[in-house]
Design a protein that fits this description.
Layout (H helix, E strand, L loop, with lengths): L2 H17 L12 E7 L4 E9 L6 E9 L2 H14 L4 H14 L23 H19 L8 E3 L3
Parallel strand pairs: 1-4
Antiparallel strand pairs: 1-2, 2-3
Bound molecules: zinc ion (ZN).
Zinc ion binds next to helix 2.
Length: 156
């Protein structure tokens, strides 16, 4: 497959998740709730998590919000990838995603769908769109149960 075809395929996947997200809404129950905002583009994300009883595994991830195709599809892809993962695995995946945005890593076969976001690394202004949902997830996982959600921004 040529590089251009591969790029088109990635764009298709991103647009498909933007137009037909699978993970929009709120988890039931809500164990974590975190808002994220990307001022440079105007993207907002409201992320909710359902954890197992011990709080060690992510059972469900849902998001609401408004934003560009990259921000919204990144959230949808992330939610798919996070279901069933342990908190430790999730934190590793967040790190890996951030490294991928610097062109330093990619995801293994079983998570390769996340690699469609690799192309975004070529457009520095859009990287914050792609990472917003991951920043927000990190904040959600670090939040103690039933704490009032704070607004996180990835502008720092
Ligand atoms: Zn954006």
């Amino acid at each position: 497959m040529s590089l251009d075809n591969l790029r088109n395929l990635y764009q298709q996947v991103i647009l498909e998740h933007y137009k037909k997200p699978r993970n929009r809404g709120k988890t039931s129950p809500v164990h974590r709730h975190q808002r994220g905002h990307n001022p440079s583009c105007g993207d907002t994300i409201d992320l909710t998590l359902q954890l197992d009883e011990a709080g060690n595994h992510i059972q469900d991830v849902k998001f609401e919000g408004e934003g560009c195709a990259i921000a919204m599809s990144s959230a949808d892809l992330m939610a798919d990838a996070m279901r069933g993962k342990s908190v430790k695995e999730a934190l590793e995946m967040i790190q890996r995603f951030q490294a991928m945005m610097k062109g330093e890593a990619e995801f293994p076969k079983e998570l390769r769908k996340l690699n469609v976001m690799q192309g975004v690394a070529q457009f520095p202004v859009r990287i914050k769109c792609a990472t917003l949902t991951w920043h927000t997830l990190k904040a959600a996982l670090e939040l103690a149960h039933s704490e009032t959600p704070e607004y996180v921004s990835n502008e720092s």
